[in-house]
Amino acid sequence: MERIEMLKENYAKYVKEDEIYRFPAFTRADVWELGCDLVESCKEYDGPLAVEIYMGNVMVFRHYSGTTGTLHEMWLGRKRNTACLFEKSTMLVAAELAVKGQGIEERLPAYAVKDDYANCGGGFPLRLQDGTLFGFVGVSGLADTLDNAALIGGLDRFFRRRGWL
What we know:
Elements (H helix, E strand, L loop, with lengths): L2 H7 L1 H10 L10 H12 L7 E6 L2 E7 L5 H17 L3 H11 L22 E5 L5 E8 L3 H19 L3
């Protein structure tokens, strides 16, 4: 299936993910647990994946597996910029662009540098249930749909263990 059609077809799923994975509470004490859940989820995929968590503008967790490194750090930065600017998962942003027939450059502010943003999955804003945005989580290393699947798998693991789902 062509990427654009896949994004359009899964639009409602990505909207739902952004609504479901909102935290009743989250502190720095929770970072390690979420990070480990993300790393465990990444192990289910064939290939090296990098994981990072930010709270505000502070990186509080980073894990590079296998051969991940500088290239993945660059992609994580682009995904973080996108999730924080649009306050949505990067997969949802990509799906919205597909539905509207737009490129990311059409949605960026005039001052933004296109190469600092990513039209792909693998980035997710961390948000409280009341809507307050407090951070970012990202996964990078595989095709963006797999990055997104690994990321959602880690969030799901964390939420289920806490009894939030």
